[in-house]
From TrEMBL:
PROSITE patterns in alphabetical order: HIS_KIN (PS50109)
One Gene Ontology molecular-function label: kinase activity
Record InterPro entries: Crtac1, FG-GAP, HATPase_C_sf, HATPase_dom, His_kinase_dom, Integrin_alpha_N, UnbV_ASPIC
Organism name: Candidatus Chryseopegocella kryptomonas
Domain Histidine kinase: 1132-1234
PANTHER family: CARTILAGE ACIDIC PROTEIN 1
Protein name: Signal transduction histidine kinase
Origin superkingdom: Bacteria
Signal peptide positions on this chain: none
Membrane spanning residue stretches: 864-882, 902-924, 936-958
Amino acid sequence: MLNWYFLWVAFLFLTFHCGLNAKEGYREFKFSITHKIISVRAVSDKSVFIFTNFSIVHFNGVRWRVLKSGIGEIKNADTDGEYIIVDVKRLDKDFVKPNFILMRFNGEVIIDEVKLEIPMTHSSNSIKFVSRGRCIIGGLFEYCFISLGDSIRYKIFPFSERVFILSHYTTNYPYPALVFNGLYSIYSLKLPHFSDLNRRDSYFVKFFDDVISGAVKPEISKLLDLDSIVSKFGNFKTVIPYSRGYILNFERGGLGFVRENQPFVFEFIRAVSGISFVDVKNEYITEVVSAGGDVFYAVLKTGEILKIEISGGDIVAKILNLNVKAFHILCSDKNLFVIGVNEILSVPLSEIDKFSISSENKFGGNFIFNINHLHFGSSYGIGASDVNGDGVEDIFIVDLDAPDYLYDGRYIKSPERKNISIESGISGRSWEKNKIGINVSVCTGDINNDGYEDFVVSYIQGSNCVYFNRRGYFRDVTKELGLDVDMRRSEHVSISDVNCDGWVDIFMTSFEGSNRLFISDAGNMFYDRTLESALLSDGRTVCAVFGDINGDGYPDLYIGNWTGGNKMYLNRGDGTFVDFTLESGTGGDLLMKTNSAIFTDFDNDGDLDLFLGNRGKGNKLFLNDGSGRFKDITVESGLFEPQIFTYGCTAGDFDNDGWIDIFIVYLGGIKLYRNIGLRNGIPIFEDVTEDYIRILERGMIDGYNTCCVSSDFDGDGDLDIFVSQNNGTSFYLENLTCDVSKIKNFIKVGVKGVRSNSDGIDSKISLFRNGELIGTRYVVSGSGYASSESKVIHFGLGDVLGGDEFEIEVEFPLVDGERVIKRVKVKPGQFVQVYEFDGLKAIAFDIVKFFKREINGFEFKIEIFKIAFLIILVLLYFYLYLNRAFESVMKITNRGRILRLIFLPVYSYVILRILISISFEISFQPYYWISGERIYLFNDVIPFAFSVLVLFILHFNFKRRLKIASLRGGLYSELIARIEEFGHSAQKSSILTRISLLIKNFDSADLEFERRLIELLNEYKEIVQPELESISDISEILSLDFDRGVVEKLNSEISNLLKKGLGNNLSREKILIPSLILRLYEQINKLREIVFSNFITQVESSISDVLKVLKCDFIKFKSNGENAVIFGRDDFTEVISIILKNSIDSVSGVESPEIKVEVLNFDGYVEIHIVDNGLGVNSGSIDRIISGGFSTKPYGHGFGLSYVKMCVRKYGGEMKILPVERGFYIVLKLRKAVVKIKN
């Protein structure tokens, strides 16, 4: 029997590590508190209670032992030394309701345990005994008085604010009161005043009886509104009464003092005497307790203990050197109990000042998180992304039944932090367009490669929503992209370049239908390729994540299902998939209920491992062997906890030791698993939640946690965490690792795709230390549960030595079978941005992407439609208004120039539209971008009006040109006739010759000679000068080379001579006028040569030349001499050839083909008659043939006779088609030249 006794003692020692280690001044008990501490209570020096989330621990003055365990997860608890009340979390559908258990303790063991039925609407936030058998419970907008004894009596009172923390109750201040805090205010619940402490319990018995019976109404008064202070220093954690007022402990490291009849006083701990710290972040206070009077003890986030004394107006603080990292403290009447990791210290208050004072921070090197509350709501998916391009990660949080939240990352820890989702156009479909919809998840990524992060938000009902981002403002483009598809409860979206074309594709899950894969067409249109990709499913999917599991460069897909097992799909490289679940070994249990999934490299071997957050049968960790085959190492790694029902998860190196850790959120709590390295090739994890996440706000954190993401949001080098809650307060865990250690043992990497997608999604980033691989990360969009991680890659480096050299290797995504790999040297503490291409090559790829995006865009299609309409309008105008005359202009004037003029209204529209777009981009208007509303005045009306104005200008310009064109046919003839007037024997030529001769031989003494010369000069003015000016004008109109200056100079000299008289004025003119007349003859002869060689054709000779080329013996040509017509030789040859070739084709099927050509000479014109006995043309088709574009021949283009007609009109002639019974009869009437010119 004695042996059994010793065995039992040994068992207790080994189990609870209890022991007494007496040291000078205090006692140390070796006892490990392995669970989260909920609350503590020191009833006396020999009765101290510690309530953890799974047990009740008691100290009897000699040893610590576990009184109770196995009752479930405890949310709140307190005791008066005899009665114990605990609120145990429910795991059923009524989890929000309280589950109170009442126990009785006899000093040794718990002797009684009953369920305490109190109909509060929500579970408790705080339980506090104020006297023996008298307790107050704070809940959600209510509080409850409870009286325990022979019977259990209670009364519930509603309250306007949420009751969070009930204060520690003490009796050594003048006006006893129980102080509790709501959201932003402090309230005092007045308790009975008593002078005899021995009769305290009897006072409370009567007071509670009166309150519960209704005889007395609780007196609650607001002590303080803290809206402005809370916004600056964070929410206050606890309220501690002291002799002259109250102390407030703020979450951002300060203490507030409310003194009786004095204004509110606030001071940082760093400001009090006796403390010297570098960074105020190292002085955050996690817990404050009262030791009576004006003495308090506080725990800093570093684990050190601070003694605070208020003496007069001074506040003095000292750090106690107890060589223990404290997590909690509590005071009895005589002792301070310090709860550490593996020990509990009992320090007599009377001996406390004997310990030395130290300002050294001895507990750095581990990661510690500080909590910051965000907002209350029903929040789910979280997206981490730089939405406005300022280089700072912003946060988007989806809310089920309220506007979504978008926080500017620059102000995430600032009192200026506010929700900007509504003004940014991303508040949610139900709030923007009054549609029914409950949004759940968000996925971020640059879908259209324009440099801005776009959002995809999933919905329980209807289609998901896609938002294009421009400068931090969002527009719903779901319909424009072809994604307006009912997804039947979509809870997750993932983005990846599935077909490796440089544009990301979108995968959407469905719980009640099939998942869908949408393939991108240049980011502006998506096509459902689910069936072709072999990804059709029958529902039940909750999450999905892309990752290259076998290292072939193609993104594979893992799908987490609620039931029926999960699926792993291998990408074949062409955008199609094959089921690889069985081979990969990742299918899991049929009832695993996978809620979240992460691909990352947990063992630092360079390939993707897989972590699953499950809501049935525990989480799973699969280790990849590099080929895409996995091994379940959940148990070996230390992650097997089947009682945890995980919602969201995120992974990252939170302590910067070089190994990726895991953070999960679940219904009722959070957990942080630290990766401590490999053991037998397997990464080992330990639960360090209680060590490094210091949480007093139990009602806040232990709620309906849903999603989480991690990134270095504050830019200090360590990974922070955002957590969302449904029907609770979302919060931000600020990682203080780098703040505490002061070591820059991290590297951050951003990747920028150029040929590949802009975000570099699917990139693989490897880190090498001195040439050895030490870590691998992947850029993923859409992982965990309903969330999207940051695309800024973070590496922890562990211990960094002076000679270490680091190098980053980035493998960019495959595009068309090619992959770019870049290596960059980096230094610890550096952020490096790696671009796929640099310089001109990058610019070229950007331009190609720009045009692909714009050409496929909806706006571009609208512009193409408008431009096409404008072209049709312009062409229709020219056709209807100018009709035949336009053809003349086309032939006479430079054809390319005329075409440019025709399309000038189109050019003007395009240029003005581009300028307007550039101006809009410079003066960006968020309203129009968000709403998609067109500014019709600038986008449509002004450009069109300007184009019409240009069209009117062209109209008048063409009228002038048409007038000239209509004259040109006669001008050729007129010009030739006028030139001939200066022939050898012509009158006008004779006048010029005689003037020149007389001036050269002028004799002033011969009056008859002078008279004859004056007569000739006057004849010049009347007869020759008008002719010369007409030749000049016609030459200019016809753009012929003729020096008009010679004529003007000659006219001027002769006019001066007549005006001044002959006399002595003829000396200079004897030389000048004859020389001008000689130059004039040269100009006329040159002009004659140009005109005769280009615009006068000998009809019979030219027709004979054409017949020689055609060599047809059935063509009969009849001529009546030689005739010259005004017609360009080349044009004449072309016209006759076209007519004769048409006739030859027409008679090709006739038995006795015959074509007759006859030239008839008339007064002023010549007619050319051509008639054949071919098949001919019916009268109804003649007009169509002449108009152009119509042909009776199967291979004809229909423009031959149209050209003939245009050419004939160009030279002032006419073309007629005469009716005949058989064949085709055409007549050309051409202007006759004045003189025959030999060819």
